[in-house]
Amino acid sequence: MRDYVVLIFLLACIIAALKKPWWGVLSLAVFSYLNPHAYAWGFVRSLPVYYVLFLVVAFRTFTCKDKQSLPKDWRIPVFVMLWIGFAITSTQAYFPYIAWQKFWFVTKIYLPFYFTLVLINTREKLYYLIVTIGASIGIVAVKGGLFAILHGFSSRVYGPPNTQFEENNAFAVAMLISVPLLLLWQKETLNPWIKKGVPFTIPIIFAASLSSWSRGALLTMGVLTLMLIFHSKRKYLIIPLVLLGAVFAKDYLPKEWFGRMNTIETYEQDSSAMGRITAWTDGWNHTLEHPFTGAGFEGWLYVTQRDWHSSYVEMFSEHGFIAFGLWLSLILGTLMSLTSIPKKTLNVSGMEWVSNYCFMLRASLICYMVGTAFLGLSYWDLLYHLIFISVLLKKVVMDELAVIQADKIKPRWAMR
Predict the structure, then answer these.
(1) pLDDT by 10s per residue, the chain, length 416
(2) What is the distance between the alpha carbons of residues 349 and 400, in angstroms, rounded to a whole number?
(3) Distance CA 392, CA 398 (A)
(4) What is the pTM of this model?
(5) Distance between CA atoms of 310 and 308, rounded to whole angstroms?
(6) CA proximity to 126, closest of 367, 360, 342
(7) Cα–Cα 20 to 30 A to 21, which of 5, 249, 313, 408?
(8) Three-point CA angle 307, 286, 324, nearest 5°
(9) Residue 228 CB neighbours (<10 A)
């Protein structure tokens, strides 16, 4: 039965993409983050549903008229240079076969962003893309949170099968990244059910993140909570709720959970933490010797004894300092852009929505930066979605400001 439901949903997405290609961009996001076909039991589970949908969207992108040229933003050529850098380092990798396999895997992740950049050409479409990503992760997050609460946080919560965040630690960070996106939805929607329902999902998502037993997620949750309190206009309500949630968690979380979290302070006594530090040290030392090419994709197999367990270390260890600089500039540049854009719309009537978009996207990006300091997720599609959504946001804001400015300086005779 599940197979037929998923198949019908896929067919609906294909029809939607054929009718309106930008709906195909939303459908790709659903199959990337919710991955509904992984929950089937039969033939649908093995079908290449994402690639079928990808081909449909690609076809409609090149045949439709409702699209824009690539935005003129410095992050796009930097992104292309980063991809070229991956190709160059793959030619020098210690394990060429593995490296090229990973290169094409990453390329398949990157290609659909072209559709995003050319088809999401209005504020409404951008809004629905953000909502789709937040809701896709939020659905499985709420499911995991309810499971965690019902089982007394004794079992770890995992993400959708066959996704980049299937592993419990990665899923915890993905869930926390989705929280600001859901709050943006709650702020911007006119639907009263969404406005009232989203706030109830946040504690459940936090519960799911706690039940991942991820130390990195705990740090990310703390940073996210502080950011949400800082941006909230109702601090008198948020702070008591946070304190109440902390008391609830303290009473219901098992002792083993606290034992694991305590190793954040006593990392010298934890073999897992010390193994990560050893891998980071090995990666740094190797990159000093090979600053331009690194070790190539999956180079940890040659350089050290375990995975990098850090997006930052993964990037410079596998591709050298130039690629690392390009990658980090995308992240930091996007943070700077999201901070500066609201200043351009300050006191501009009708542009009040901009601050909420920027602050929530910035919160999600900071969650990525904190959470993946301990996870090797530098090729994660969710990161690049946040970056390119920010690129599109800047374009939409600049276009709307240009219209407003043009209306202000329009001569009187033109208004008759």
Answers:
(1) 677 787 888 889 999 999 999 999 999 999 889 887 777 666 666 777 888 899 999 999 999 999 999 999 999 999 999 999 999 999 999 999 999 999 999 999 999 999 999 999 999 999 999 999 999 999 999 998 888 888 777 777 888 777 788 888 888 999 999 999 999 999 999 999 999 899 889 888 988 888 887 777 888 888 998 888 877 766 656 666 666 666 666 666 666 656 666 655 555 545 666 778 888 999 999 999 999 999 999 998 898 888 888 999 999 999 999 999 999 999 999 999 999 999 988 888 888 899 999 999 999 999 999 999 988 899 999 999 999 999 999 999 999 998 887 766 655 554 44
(2) 11
(3) 10
(4) 0.91
(5) 5
(6) 360
(7) 5
(8) 75
(9) 19
The tokens describing 51, both together, are: 């690639």
Paired tokens of 175:
């869930």
